[in-house]
Amino acid sequence: MAESSDGTGGSGGEGYYAAASSTFSILQQAAATFYAARAMQYELRTRASAYRHQAAMARIDARSAEIQAVDILRAGALEKAAFSLQAAQARAVERARTGSSGIAGGSAAEVEASQRFVDELGANAITGRALRAASSVRLQRAQALGVALLSEANATSLRQFARVQDPWGSAIVSLLGNAHKPVAAYESRTTQGRTESRRSDTSERRSDTGEQSGSSTGPSTGGEA
Known about the structure:
Layout: H1 8-101, H2 105-164, H3 167-177, H4 181-224
Helix pairs in contact: 1-2, 1-3, 1-4
């Protein structure tokens, strides 16, 4: 007989099937957890690489801005030197002209002092333009350095978070968290099968009792007729 009287044979087979199905589902869930953690790891590393690239480009921009600022200041200094040289030559020519024309010394000195003051104003204006231009470029350098520092901080945080992501550890935790489910599925299906088998046996017994009662009543009725 393939199945015992209490139905343990069939219910046991169904219990094994339920346990196997639960185990397969748990394995699928663990695999999904593993690949989800792996995908998260790749995404975090990709974003960290993007931030590192952004930081590198920002530092290049900062270095370029500093070089440009130095060039502006150097050009301003050269322009000031050339202007001062031309002004000095112009004053010398003017001094010679006034001396040869017989202009009084006091008047000539006043004229030269006025011209020297104007020349200094021109030289200071050249220096001021260079300083303003260099300051504007150095402000861009500071902004680029700020972007670089922020990007490097983001890249470091993402790399650390990516190292925390452990695909194998996540899969093992998922397996351990669901390890009880196959046993529970087996016990639940076995218990359900036994209950159904007992109900079926009870129904069969009631049916057999009814048939025996009917057969015992039939001949006595015919004899009386």
